[in-house]
TrEMBL record, chains A, B:
Residues 16-70 form the HTH lacI-type domain. Residues 16-64 form the HTH cro/C1-type domain. It comes from the Bacteria. GO terms for molecular function: DNA binding. The keyword Cell membrane does not apply. PROSITE patterns: HTH_CROC1 (PS50943), HTH_LACI_2 (PS50932). Pfam families: LacI, Peripla_BP_1. The lineage of its organism: Bacteria, Pseudomonadati, Bacteroidota, Cytophagia, Cytophagales. Keywords: DNA-binding, Transcription, Transcription regulation. This is LacI family DNA-binding transcriptional regulator.
Length: 368, 368
DNA sequence: TTGTACGCGTTATCAG
DNA sequence: CTGATAACGCGTACAA
């Protein structure tokens, strides 16, 4: 029976509360509260005394208690399909940076591309009493039912990147249409006329819009759409390889360019072309979408469309702050922020005049 | 004076509380509380009635209130230098997945490699009353002072990847030493004898250990260390290029291999070698560290050491849960989890016998 | 098995 | 300018 030391060394000192400060100074808690929250009706002398003691005793405000009382926390909930991967990681970076600048903390949730999980995430965030929710939809989300409660509670809700266009929502999106248009125009200007397209799942706004941009660019050159040249897939590396194989096997000589709605797939295409000794960009020009880091590493380097990931995160937070500002009366005020994509032209799409200085300038522009 | 509609349509219905349920059913709040928290002393009949109504009225528990009451929230705070970039993004993915499985939410903070910011992050998380803190130190953190409060409060604190070895802390780290040792041994087995090393900032445990593994592997082959062959830098792409230039310029014929403590730098080296028409791996073999996605894309593909990012996140959460379990009495119980790295051998380091099937098997192993 | 009453730490309302 | 008091929503000794 070794006598256990009474005054145990790891005494976990309980945190200091406003009541402690009040007792110590012989004033009321109200005074403490006012001093700390910089209220106007407070004597500068007492205020200093309070702040002094707070510093000395290492007072930590309890956000939970404040939130409970005010019915308003300083937490923002974020729901993304997954966090690893450059796009969402960078968006989240933008969100966290902007949010913390505005005094908010960020709770992160992953839906794993699963509606059921997304539903749970919403519940959890509501239970956590978040001040707002920013969400990029899972791949197979088809309706807004699970977001109705959020709206009912008057909690600001902002969608980004992946949204359902069917409904009126606050959203920050990239102008995917323009991205598809720009890149296709670029390929046309390089002299390409049989341009293939790797298209993603069409129920997602982003892939639908990129495809439409592609089609409209063709039309601006009086080129009729050719469904043979559009390959639909989930845009994985293997999908890209297989899609490229299909295009090469077309009866009338294949294509002289491909615009892929994703970089991963275009990488697969590039690998296939190299294995088949098809010269890129001389015989087939390539362009992708997302401006992934590896596009500046491949040989040749890949032309791609930058999605402004970080700006998207910042914009989402800004939009949330606006909505939070005008609580209630903006419930019907639908705000849309549309970011302009940026085309990064690299070797894989330069046919005739290399215009090398332009390339050099932009080649390393992995800004996002 | 347009008369404002009294029954405004966007009536943000206030959330249902336990009191509401109690009133509705004509029972006390205690009963409600017990029914919802699955307490033992509760009639199965009343329990069902409560749960029924809760579902019907869409009751959302208020975690804030519960946390305030219990002095224990269901939040885990995570501090990383930055979130974008594969390593931390994937670790955070692992953390969030494991945490949510255990019923915890994750608050994410970025220190931006800045101690001052890290200090602020700690304060914020304490104010948010998190149940624990997981942290990977900023590059220029040299002491633990700002973590003392965390310890004082008895809040579980777990470090991962970047730690200060000077102190006794709970930590999850990669066996960087072994990673450096393995990869250097591999280069030696390929016949290389003048192996250069790109070393990172030596005050960081990870870079110091990788370097030591390199040195010990050399010694196991009776090769004396040669400080000329070790280039110190911040391991950026440009650093890699410049470091490679320096090694090539050495008087006695340069090197026949390089082990870089980071993939980005080894990529710079590869680019430089290609521009100088030095054959990789025939004239100079290359190996990096981190198993970045691009290592499987370059030509030749780059040999690298995988850091088990996702496992690291999971392990950090597991460790936190253990500590949270045994509150208090484990304050001095120091736990260390050391993950074993995995070497991915690719083309850039294969000299003599290609043993191609081995390569093929591992080439795409971007598991992390 | 159920109900009563109090407290977690903070802020807002009302008197002085 | 300051203080007493009530509430926010929930959990839990204690009593019934």
């Amino acid at each position: 029976m070794a006598p256990r030391s009474k005054k145990t060394v790891d005494a976990t000192s309980s945190p200091i509360s406003m009541a402690d400060l009040a007792r110590e100074l012989g004033v009321s808690m109200t005074t403490i509260s006012r001093a700390l929250s910089d209220h106007h009706s407070i004597g500068p002398a007492t205020k200093q005394r309070v702040l002094k003691l707070a510093k000395k005793l290492n007072y930590q405000p309890n956000h939970l208690a404040a939130a409970l009382r005010k019915g308003q926390s300083k937490l923002i909930g974020v729901i993304v399909p997954y966090i690893e991967g450059r796009f969402f990681a960078t968006v989240v970076h933008g969100i966290e940076t902007a949010a913390s600048k505005a005094g908010f903390n960020v709770i992160i949730c992953q839906s794993s591309e699963d509606v059921a999980q997304e539903r749970k995430n919403v519940e959890t965030l509501l239970s956590a009493q978040v001040a707002g929710i920013l969400v990029s939809l899972s791949r197979d989300t088809n309706d807004f039912r699970h977001f109705e409660k959020v709206r009912k509670r008057g909690i600001p809700l902002v969608f980004f990147d992946r949204v359902l266009e069917s409904d009126t929502v606050n959203a920050v999106v990239l102008n995917d249409y323009d991205g598809g248009y720009q890149v296709t125009r670029h390929l046309l200007e390089q002299g390409c006329r049989r341009i293939g397209h790797f298209a993603g799942p069409q129920h997602l706004n982003i892939y639908r819009n990129r495809r439409q941009g592609y089609l409209d660019a063709l039309e601006s050159y009086q080129l009729p759409p050719d469904e043979q040249l559009i390959i639909y897939s989930d845009m994985t590396l293997e999908d890209g390889t297989e899609s490229m194989r299909q295009l090469l096997a077309l009866p009338d000589g294949g294509v002289d360019a491909v615009f892929s709605a994703g970089d991963t797939a275009v990488l697969g295409a590039l690998q296939h072309l190299k294995s088949k000794r098809v010269a890129v960009p001389q015989q087939v020009a390539l362009a992708g979408f997302s401006n992934e880091a590896f596009t500046a590493i491949t040989e040749p380097m890949l032309t791609s469309v930058d999605q402004r990931c970080e700006e998207m995160g910042q914009a989402a937070v800004r939009l949330f702050l606006e909505l939070a500002e005008s609580r209630g009366d903006s419930a019907f005020l639908q705000r849309q922020v549309i970011l302009q994509p940026r085309l990064f032209i690299r070797e894989s799409s330069l046919q005739g005049t290399p215009s090398l200085d332009t390339v050099a300038k932009q080649a390393n522009g992995i800004s996002c």
